[in-house]
Design brief:
Length: 456
């Protein structure tokens, strides 16, 4: 009994239909055979009738089996095409009413709906890809093993590497090994290519085929902080300039007036032959007022230099060879010990502004080596993807207070005004790059590193 049930279960659906059709056809054939047997007809006629009846039953049964099998296989092919993503195939509509027509109608509706959903999904995917590529936020996706599976162009630019170079590598490759274990939203500072950057990091999760993956969103807020800092100093400078100028103008005017009065009075004393002591007193007054006037003029010039910083013009970019620019600058520093190292490289930047930055940094490097007469300044540059990195190394005293080097008014020079580095960094930031100053790790001295995009 169990064997019969197993055999029935393994028999195909169309075979079962064939058996049912044969059984239904053979029953009337038995009765018809009996009726023919009892009638007095020729044996030849009886055999012919029995043969035709048997052929009709077998043909009808196999025809039913063939039509059912064809429809099932057609439906299977349609569904297989849908699974493969081909929603253009449609089932044929049969005339009249019936279950097969309803099935084909529902199937075609489902295929059309899936085709519409697939089109919407593709359009949204294209939109998402465009947003991810154009957004300024760096996005890095990692799998459950903390290996990199996605990086958008902003992340490639931030970490100065291409996605195909680090795909499948651990997230520690780009210095984010501690991000996944810390808080999901934080402002942190980490080192990228030997430069510290302050960024805002936000982590989130998503699932793909049941596996948990993580997304890391990194916003470079260094430039934003620099811009906010610059605007804060500009506001302060406007207030200081207004208040100081209001005081300096009458001081300078009164000093000049008093100096003229004293000079005239001294001449009258000399003419009248008065005492020498009174003449010396007026000399001291004249000298003191001259100092007041000179300091007022110096302070006014000091403010004018900061006002130039607050109104720095936008860079006027053009194509030029960086190597030729640096070689031509050596003529300005004949008495400096400078070595250049780099190949010809055409970049797109404001040549005059970049030259101004380089001159300032070279002068700073030279002044840091006043106590080292044999010190050497080394300038090298190299292309890294879409950026160029310019390094200026000196063998001077190094940086003593790194936190204040980009603070306006702060200077360690006797004759400095604390504007050069701030001015230089703002020029580089306006070019879409960055300027960093650090102490050299391998030897004494400082390193000034300029990072600039090669193209616009």
């Amino acid at each position: 009994m169990k064997k019969n049930n197993k055999a029935s279960a393994t028999t195909s659906f169309e075979q079962q239909l064939l058996r049912i059709a044969l059984f239904i056809g053979l029953l009337p054939m038995v009765f018809l055979s009996y009726a023919l047997y009892t009638h007095e007809l020729s044996i030849f006629l009886k055999i012919m009738l029995m043969f035709l009846l048997l052929v009709s039953i077998l043909y009808g049964a196999f025809l039913i089996r063939q039509k059912v099998a064809f429809q099932l296989r057609t439906s299977t092919n349609l569904i297989t095409a849908m699974q493969a993503g081909d929603h253009s195939i449609r089932a044929n509509h049969f005339e009249g009413e019936g279950a097969l027509r309803e099935f084909n109608h529902v199937f075609n509706g489902l295929s059309s709906k899936l085709a519409e959903q697939e089109l919407i999904s593709k359009e949204r995917q294209v939109l998402l890809d465009i947003v991810i590529k154009q957004i300024d936020v760096a996005i890095v996706a990692v799998n459950k093993s903390s290996n990199i599976i996605l990086m958008n162009p902003a992340a490639e630019k931030l970490f100065s590497c291409r996605f195909d170079e680090v795909a499948g590598w651990p997230i520690s490759t780009i210095g984010l090994q501690d991000v996944l274990t810390n808080e999901s939203r934080q402002v942190t500072e980490f080192e990228i290519k030997a430069h510290k950057k302050k960024v805002f990091i936000h982590t989130d999760e998503y699932f793909e085929q049941g596996d948990r993956h993580k997304l890391v969103f990194i916003t470079d807020i260094q430039k934003l902080l620099h811009e906010e800092e610059r605007q804060a100093w500009q506001k302060l400078l406007r207030v200081l300039s207004h208040e100081i100028n209001n005081s300096l103008t009458p001081i300078a005017s009164l000093s000049d007036t008093l100096i003229r009065l004293i000079t005239n009075h001294k001449n009258s004393i000399t003419t009248q032959g008065n005492a020498l002591e009174e003449h010396d007193l007026f000399d001291d007054l004249e000298e003191g007022l001259a100092v007041i006037a000179e300091r007022a003029q110096s302070l006014n010039e000091f403010l004018l230099r900061y006002q130039e910083f607050s109104s720095l013009p936008k860079p006027e970019k053009s194509l030029f060879d960086l190597a030729n620019l640096l070689k031509s600058m050596l003529l300005l520093f004949d008495d400096y010990n400078i070595t250049l190292s780099g190949q010809s490289l055409v970049i797109y930047a404001d040549e005059k502004q970049l030259q101004q930055v380089l001159v300032n940094l070279i002068k700073n490097a030279h002044q840091a080596m006043l106590e080292n007469s044999t010190g050497q300044i080394t300038i090298d540059w190299q292309q890294k993807g879409d950026i160029v990195e310019i390094n200026i190394n000196d063998q001077g005293t190094g940086i003593n207070n790194a936190d204040n080097i980009f603070v306006p008014f702060y200077t360690t020079k006797d004759d400095g005004c604390g504007i050069g580095l701030v001015f230089s960094r703002q020029i580089i930031v306006n070019h879409g790059g960055s300027l960093a100053l650090t102490n050299r790790a391998e030897s004494q001295g400082a390193l000034a590193c300029i990072v600039l995009p090669i193209h616009d």
